[in-house]
Amino acid sequence: LIQRRGKYPIQQDFQKNWETYKKGFGNLREEFWLGNENIRALCNEECILRLDLQDQKGERGFGLYNTFKLSGNNYRLTLSDFKGNI
């Protein structure tokens, strides 16, 4: 899990600067961003990225990228082979 957002007692502000996104922020039990450095460490080799979404009406959707990779100091994003309904 690299990000979670939802209806929690304390809403996390996701309007952050680049340095904060690099390190990560939030509460892992509620809303958070894991951090670009941590994500790159986990997915410097190819990973699979799954997105699970739910709108305010409770309708759900998902997306799956069979190739997900972050590389380099600028966190170059590689995505391919998408499947899903979002």
TrEMBL record:
Q: Which domain of life is it from?
A: Eukaryota
Q: Which PROSITE patterns match?
A: FIBRINOGEN_C_2 (PS51406)
The GO biological-process annotations, alphabetized, read as: positive regulation of heterotypic cell-cell adhesion
Identify the SMART domains for this entry.
FBG
Keyword Secreted, does the record have it? Answer: yes
InterPro entries, from UniProt? FIB_ANG-like, Fibrinogen-like_C, Fibrinogen_a/b/g_C_1, Fibrinogen_a/b/g_C_dom
Q: Which Gene3D superfamilies match?
A: Gamma Fibrinogen, chain A, domain 1 (3.90.215.10)
Q: Name one GO molecular function term.
A: extracellular matrix structural constituent
> Which Pfam families does the UniProt entry name for this protein?
Fibrinogen_C
**Predominant cellular place of this UniProt entry's protein:** secreted
Q: Where in the cell is it found?
A: Secreted
Protein name from the UniProt record:
Fibrinogen C-terminal domain-containing protein
Organism this protein belongs to: Araneus ventricosus
